[in-house]
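Ticket #4471: structure output looks truncated?

Reporter: J.K.
Steps to reproduce: submitted the chain below (409 residues) through the standard prediction queue, then opened the result file.
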Amino acid sequence: MAISPEAKRYTALFLTASFASLASFAQGAKGIPEPAGVPELMETFGGEKVDSVAKWEKVRRPEILKCFEEQCFGVRPEAVRDGKRISYKIRETNDVLGGKAVREVVDATYSGPCGDYVFTFVSMRPKAKKPVPVFLNFFLEKGDLAALTAAPDYSDPRWPFADIIARGFATVAISKMAIAPDDSATCFKKSIFPCVEPLSARTKSSWAAISSWAWGNSRVMDWIESRPDVFDAKHVAVVGHSRGGKTALWTGATDTRFAMVCSVQSGCGGAKLNHVKLPKSEHISQITKGFTHWFCKNYLKWRGKEFEMPFDQHMLAALVAPRLLVISSASLDSWAGQPGEWWTAKLAGPAWELYGKKGLEADAYPPVDTPQFGGSVGYFVRTGKHSITPYEWARYMDFAEKHGWKGEK
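Returned output as attached by the reporter:
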């Protein structure tokens, strides 16, 4: 597949920012930039104060969700607003990890108004006497997960399922390619989209790739709920890295069944606050040139106008409240705007406080590899570059266990 000039430019910018010196970042972190003109979270778009759970749930949360639907990720058609058009078939079942765990390959069929679409995901779970919590990995793997995981020696540090199972949790992975290709030329032509509605029906507010991927995560959740004998559906976390981190946030915003959201270095359009000056980070003008298929067309109007936006990412993060949220960064990943990700975690806190919970318990940006896990919102910055590693996974399991998630070891 040919790589567009815009994508090549994006890659060059990303690499330049990602490999900035650790010493330079650490120096700047002593006094990270302050946000300016951030939209008020606890005030409706009409100017009314939000001071109760009832007003948050009936007025403020719905209007924020609608704002991000119409201005960022796109509005889903009626035909995909639930899981009633989906059927599931377990294609393969076998023991793995020396008989300590079970692997299942699942084919899901969506019967849309314009055709059928089949996608696949893979489950790994410990052989346990009771249902166990689950970590759903929206995986940036491009290959066939069913074929890859069939190999007896399969392992991948981006999805350390052996470590996850050893701590008593199940894990499910779905590839980003399962629902829609990560390519602007084919995304809306060779994927779930043409099975839902014709290309000619798309508008400036139509759903795009990130929303479709989040929809896929929710359909995996439907399947998890259908297996109460092995999965604890009340304790399911969604994890995503980079564009997957944006997807994880939107999954948690649109589907409150997920009890925890883990956003890994999601940057612009994800956890990075826009109302703060971070010149080495990615901005809307750049992301919408290289990856036009991720967002609805309305998002284009905010190019170069971040400080004029009446919404920002702390509002997206707040849609997860009162559930658990972890936002994480990497020390060499300036492109994702680490201080902006921390500010989002911090400024989203009032939504948890409405429920009598604590948000991010931190008054200053943390040293590397020092998680801030005191409240229901957690944050940490890992030493290293833009990637997801076993370190992140271990911290997410730490956070889950801290909040009472008990796997069977």
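Triage note (M.O.): checked the attachment and the full token line is present. Residues 53-73 form the longest helix (21 residues).
Status: closed, working as intended.
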